[in-house]
Amino acid sequence: MMSRNPADTRTRILETAWKLLESGDKAVRMSDIAKGAGISRQALYLHFPNRAELLIAVTRHIDSVNDVDTRLAPSRAATRGVERLETFIAAWGGYIPQIHGISVALRAMQGDPEAAAAWDDRMQAVRHGCAAAIRALATDGDLREDLTEEAATDLLWVLLSVENWERLVRDCGWSQDAYLREVTALAHHALLAQSRS
Amino acid sequence: MMSRNPADTRTRILETAWKLLESGDKAVRMSDIAKGAGISRQALYLHFPNRAELLIAVTRHIDSVNDVDTRLAPSRAATRGVERLETFIAAWGGYIPQIHGISVALRAMQGDPEAAAAWDDRMQAVRHGCAAAIRALATDGDLREDLTEEAATDLLWVLLSVENWERLVRDCGWSQDAYLREVTALAHHALLAQSRS
DNA sequence: TGTCAACTTTACACTGTGTCAAGTTGATGC
DNA sequence: GCATCAACTTGACACAGTGTAAAGTTGACA
Q1: Cβ of B1 < 7 Å from strand D?
Q2: Each residue's pLDDT tens digit, A61-98
Q3: Taking the model in full, what pTM does it have?
Q4: Do you know which SUPFAM superfamilies this protein is assigned to (chains A, B) (predicted)?
Q5: Could you give the C-alpha distances from A12 to A19, A60, A64, in angstroms and in order?
Q6: B6-50: which CATH number, 2.50.20.20, 1.10.10.60, 3.40.50.150, 1.20.120.450?
């Protein structure tokens, strides 16, 4: 028993789970994570009460590793609405690949109310970002006239969903660059009063 | 034992499963379907080899009840590209509510390769419809110049995904009418060379 | 009357999650 | 040096849901 530091073990579990989820191919059972982290399956339950909590902890771990606030800083700093929209799409769209694996696992646990709530919270956070961008657009008078701010927020939020990223990048074989480019262009055409390329 | 006709029992199973999936609230186990159809759980396996095959049979049943070909006739009959796009969105978008329940169940069975393949097939069929509409647009010269036919097909396909419908109608509380209206408008702005309302 | 097909009941194997209890082991304090 | 404690181990078990197997019931039909 080399490393007996509980914090070490915890992060090793989280990193292992992240890696396994990211690789995506399989189902990722508790025993897989335990084996990957080099501990017994039961030891997982010394660190996390159940699978849902473990997955939720993984998302928080990914967030802290990636420093979400820093990623979003350019968007918050943007002065013009269009700029804010573009930087937000770049920030969130660039973050999706990181959380894609955990997203699949969490959505597959629809049965568990805790897991559902955790994923829902994250999506609501994204929605707030969308709302802020749309509000900035509206303030500049750049929002398409026949769209409510509410409706525009919903549309942008849906457009930027992880599922859409999965479809385009994984199913359609788009590169991450192509995804960002086309989604940004689509948002322009769909949301702005007059589209400027 | 009143109705001993196997075909009757089969359709009763399919209708029951459809109804239960549509209601959406719960997990819909084999025993739920059996109870709903008024037979024993084991009798299900006299009609379907496993859960995946049953779910697939439900989708086929829904298709036959709803007569998909008739729904798509207006789209195929459309002469101009824009008209074809609009009628296709109306047809498919109007069909989504019917298959929404089974869609959730089938996607939740990602583990099962048969279920995955079945859902994939259906999505590819939708994609073909998207491709036909895009091709018609391109032929008319109405497609946005900076879009490949391929890319435009991908975008339309993603836009019309069941997941996006779920988000907008279920999560955001849009009416089916609002969904069809806004999605059609979005497709116009996103895909057409110059948007005409 | 006998046979067959649809269906029933009971029982069990398998997988994956989560719980419980009784060890083992290494660091730390005294 | 010795006890203690926390992290971890092994092994067993309950539970849910799917799928399999086997033996019995029942109604239709020839």
Answers
A1: yes
A2: 999 999 988 999 999 999 899 999 999 999 999 999 99
A3: 0.91
A4: Homeodomain-like, Tetracyclin repressor-like, C-terminal domain
A5: 10, 14, 15
A6: 1.10.10.60
